[in-house]
């Protein structure tokens, strides 16, 4: 059994990231030395002796975009099939999980992001403000979701998705510049710019979400009647009875992981700190609208890292409006082990039936035809199957180490195909 502990990752503020990634000859010697030690701390955090991630705080405009976008993840996930297809189509979003499966524990929508996209001119502060007002009323009660009004509800979905995605991409690019400079010979930044980025808005389902999902299509009429009541001013607290979902309706086979153990295989993964939501537990309420934001029940993000060498699982703690940047395996290869990816998963509090988790992730990947050449693997093979601790052995059976999946001179496309094949025994796309 691995020990468990909390990890408070290295935090750097956006203004320092900018200083580290730009040539600023005007810095005083004291400031220069502060920036140099911060750069050393970044390289330590992302390198073989660190956790393979860090946190960025103080990113301008980002908290508002995050607050607008993350609650939409749940709303999209719980729409009926037809409505969801329409919303996704209207905003040119796709999905990379089988949304037809009502027992799924993750829903996501995804979009390819291009660095040249620049939406700053398209989004005024007025449009952003109106998006906030659509989600919650002044008293803190959620406003009812009338899905006849999908256009209003999801009006800014596409633009907010892209704007936050591009902002997160920029964070990854600036961090890549810091690493390139510190290492001296790498081309992480250029590989990201020449590569592709995928934005993924993720809703991790609560157990009750899955009941709602099954009922959404069959109960549409009843649901409309209830949202009509809500429009007439009957708010959740006096609309719901205290009759809870009968225990037998809640799935007993819930996994204690919202996402399985894996390594990311791009260059960097940039994530928002997750948002937690608790829905009403009454069986007869208008469930979708009856939901409030909540802090994490255990004061951590439920993102967990496995430190194989120490046999410790760390729960990552990150301030609510910060971003996490994680190293992916392509960065291990491109930097010949100066940066190191860490095995991670998303754990799930199985005892809380009405808790969901929302997050937005941007995967920064090299171009598909980029040749990943490295013959040195300082990060790899520290643990062989035989001497690995028990949990690690179990994981390694499903997730072979990088040295097995990567062959010298592979292109990124070949590497990701091999990884997906070995993770899932198929050639479908990972995530
Ligand atoms: O949701 C999270 O915090 C982590 C997600 C993740 O690891 C992934 O999508 O690769
Ligand atoms: Fe991941």
UniProtKB/TrEMBL annotation:
InterPro entries: IPNS-like_sf (IPR027443), Oxoglu/Fe-dep_dioxygenase_dom (IPR005123). Signal peptide: none annotated. PANTHER family: ISOPENICILLIN N SYNTHASE-LIKE FE(2+) 2OG DIOXYGENASE DOMAIN-CONTAINING PROTEIN, PTHR48253. SUPFAM superfamilies: Clavaminate synthase-like (SSF51197). Belongs to the iron/ascorbate-dependent oxidoreductase family. Keywords: Iron, Metal-binding, Oxidoreductase. This is Fe2OG dioxygenase domain-containing protein. GO terms for molecular function: metal ion binding; oxidoreductase activity. Residues 236-366 form the Fe2OG dioxygenase domain. It comes from the Eukaryota.
């Amino acid at each position: 059994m691995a020990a468990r502990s909390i990890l408070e990752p290295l935090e750097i503020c956006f203004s320092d990231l900018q200083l580290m990634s730009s040539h600023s000859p005007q810095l005083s010697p004291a400031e220069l030395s502060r920036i140099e030690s911060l750069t050393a701390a970044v390289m330590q955090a992302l390198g073989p002796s660190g956790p393979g991630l860090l946190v960025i705080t103080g990113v301008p405009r980002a908290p508002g975009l995050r607050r607008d976008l993350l609650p939409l993840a749940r709303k999209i996930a719980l729409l009926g099939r037809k409505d969801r297809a329409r919303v996704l189509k209207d905003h040119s979003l796709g999905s990379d999980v089988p949304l037809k499966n009502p027992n799924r524990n993750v829903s996501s929508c995804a979009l390819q992001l291009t660095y040249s996209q620049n939406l700053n001119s398209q989004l005024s502060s007025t449009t952003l403000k109106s998006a906030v007002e659509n989600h919650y009323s002044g008293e803190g009660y959620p406003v009812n979701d009338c899905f006849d009004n999908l256009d209003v509800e999801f009006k800014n979905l596409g633009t907010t998705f892209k704007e936050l995605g591009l902002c997160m991409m920029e964070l990854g690019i600036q961090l890549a510049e810091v690493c390139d400079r510190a290492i001296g010979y790498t081309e992480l930044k250029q590989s990201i710019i020449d590569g592709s980025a995928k934005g993924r808005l993720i809703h991790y389902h609560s157990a009750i979400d899955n009941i709602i999902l099954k009922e959404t299509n069959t109960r549409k009429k009843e649901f409309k009647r209830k949202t009509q009541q809500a429009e007439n001013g009957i708010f959740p607290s006096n609309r719901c009875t205290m009759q809870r979902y009968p225990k037998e309706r809640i799935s007993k086979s819930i996994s204690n992981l919202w996402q399985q153990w894996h390594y990311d295989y791009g260059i960097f993964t940039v994530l928002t700190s997750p948002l937690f939501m608790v829905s009403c537990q009454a069986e007869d309420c208008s469930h979708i609208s009856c939901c409030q934001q909540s802090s994490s029940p255990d004061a951590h993000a439920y993102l967990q890292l496995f430190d194989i060498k120490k046999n410790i699982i760390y729960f990552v703690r990150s301030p609510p409006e910060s971003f996490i940047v994680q190293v992916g395996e392509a960065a291990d290869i491109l930097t010949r082990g100066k940066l190191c990816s860490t095995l991670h998963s998303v754990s799930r509090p199985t005892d809380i039936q009405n808790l969901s988790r929302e997050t937005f992730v941007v995967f920064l990947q090299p171009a598909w035809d980029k040749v990943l050449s490295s013959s040195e693997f300082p990060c790899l093979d520290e643990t062989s199957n035989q001497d690995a601790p028990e949990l690690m052995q179990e994981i390694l059976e499903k997730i072979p180490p990088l040295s097995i999946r990567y062959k010298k001179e592979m292109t990124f496309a070949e590497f990701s195909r091999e990884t997906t094949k070995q993770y899932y025994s198929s050639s479908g796309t990972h995530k």
